[in-house]
Write a structure and sequence with these properties.
The chain has 292 residues and is an alpha/beta fold. It has one domain (30-291): Aromatic amino acid hydroxylase (Phenylalanine Hydroxylase, Orthogonal Bundle), CATH 1.10.800.10. The chain has 13 helices and 7 strands. The protein has helices at 35-51, 58-66, 77-88, 101-109, 133-140, 147-166, 169-181, 196-199, 202-210, 221-225, 246-252, 255-263, 286-291; strands spanning 91-95, 112-116, 184-187, 190-193, 215-218, 237-241, 279-281. The strands form 2 sheets. A 5-stranded mixed sheet has the order 4-3-6-5-7. Strands 1-2 form a two-stranded parallel ribbon. Strand 5, helix 10 and strand 6 (237-241) form a beta-alpha-beta unit. Helix 4 packs across helix 6 and helix 6 (147-166) runs parallel beside helix 11 (246-252). The protein starts with 34 loop residues before the first helix and ends with a helix. 43% of the residues are buried. The chain binds fe (ii) ion (FE2). Fe (ii) ion (FE2) binds at residues 6-7, 131, 135, 140, 181, 196-197. Belongs to the biopterin-dependent aromatic amino acid hydroxylase family. Residues 1-20 are annotated as: Disordered. Keywords: Iron, Metal-binding, Monooxygenase, Oxidoreductase, Phenylalanine catabolism. Residues 1-292 form the Biopterin-dependent aromatic amino acid hydroxylase family profile domain.
């Protein structure tokens, strides 16, 4: 199962892995990757690239095509950053794995995407305890070439720092989870993937679009802020944007009044369907029922 920890940028970060630098960055040390580590990248890359045509949204495919992300080697963050910087002003910086929330938000607010420096073990291709270079670079970085996502993730960084002060991080984290990590978008008359947690996962790339089990609901900000999510398995609900540009409107909303309003309502389980939901497809829930 490769859905674990995909957005756990800070939640479980301990002090054990703290590097010397205050912003938790480390050198990527690209030359030190072993042939086995590059081979793991190649296996994951090929598996996903075979699955994604017709499933990933155009912005992802386009970003991937224009970046120096190659089949046979772990990407060099400096080369990635050069191209990103020219297009959307972003950089990729290496971190040991999970970083504390405030560090993560500071990076995003300054258009630096912290990416795990390590790659998962070859015998654990579908198991992730912390986001690695494949999840972070293959999953997230192509979308950073899209101006809308570039602005949205920066705004999320600012919003995260503010939500920390307001004690509303949990509500904001659900927005990140159901968009940047597990978001779907309408495109060309179908649903397509833009979330990094999905595009970097072979099994969830199929599950989210093809399984009759999960719900697929129209995105509604206040609804999403109330909705729990799965960190240990596939999602039970996917929220669908009408268009990626809707993220920009999200970035402009003042969340503070919403935190108060939503904070007074019950939190919803990950598989809830409300009478007010815009149901695109109602799942039968079978996948998760069988796993209980
Ligand atoms: Fe992620």
């Amino acid at each position: 199962m490769d859905t674990t920890a995909t957005a756990l940028h800070g939640w479980a970060a301990g002090e054990a892995g703290r590097p010397a630098s205050p912003d938790w960055t480390i050198p990527q040390n690209w030359a030190a990757y072993t042939p086995q580590e590059h081979a793991t990248w190649a296996t994951l890359y090929r598996r996903q690239m075979a699955l994604l045509p017709g499933r990933a949204c155009d912005a992802f495919v386009d970003g991937m095509r224009r970046l120096p992300i190659e089949p046979d080697r772990i990407p060099d963050f400096e080369r990635l950053s050069e191209v990103l910087m020219r297009h959307t002003g972003w950089q990729v910086v290496a971190v040991p794995g999970l970083v504390p929330d405030d560090v993560f938000f500071e990076h995003l607010a300054h258009r630096r995407f912290p990416a795990g420096q390590f790659i998962r073990r070859a015998d654990q291709l579908d198991y992730l305890q912390e986001p690695d270079v494949f999840h972070d670079v293959f999953g997230h970085v192509p979308m950073l070439m899209h101006p809308v996502m570039a602005d949205f993730i920066q705004a999320y960084g600012h919003g995260g720092l503010r939500a920390q002060r307001l004690g509303a991080l949990e509500m904001l984290a659900r927005v990140y989870w159901y968009t940047v990590e597990f978001g779907l978008v309408r495109e060309a008359g179908a649903l397509r993937i833009y979330g990094a947690g999905i595009v970097s996962s072979a099994s969830e790339s199929r599950f989210c679009l093809e399984s009759p089990s999960p719900h697929r609901l129209g995105f509604d900000l206040a609804r999403v802020m109330r909705t729990r999510y799965r960190i240990d398995d596939f999602q039970q609900t996917y929220f669908v944007l009408d268009r990626l540009e809707d993220l920009l409107r999200l970035a402009e909303i003042d969340f503070a009044p919403l935190y108060e309003q939503v904070g007074r309502l019950d939190t919803l389980p990950a598989d809830a369907v409300l009478p007010t939901d815009a149901v695109i497809s109602r799942g039968d829930g079978r996948y998760h029922q069988q796993r209980v």
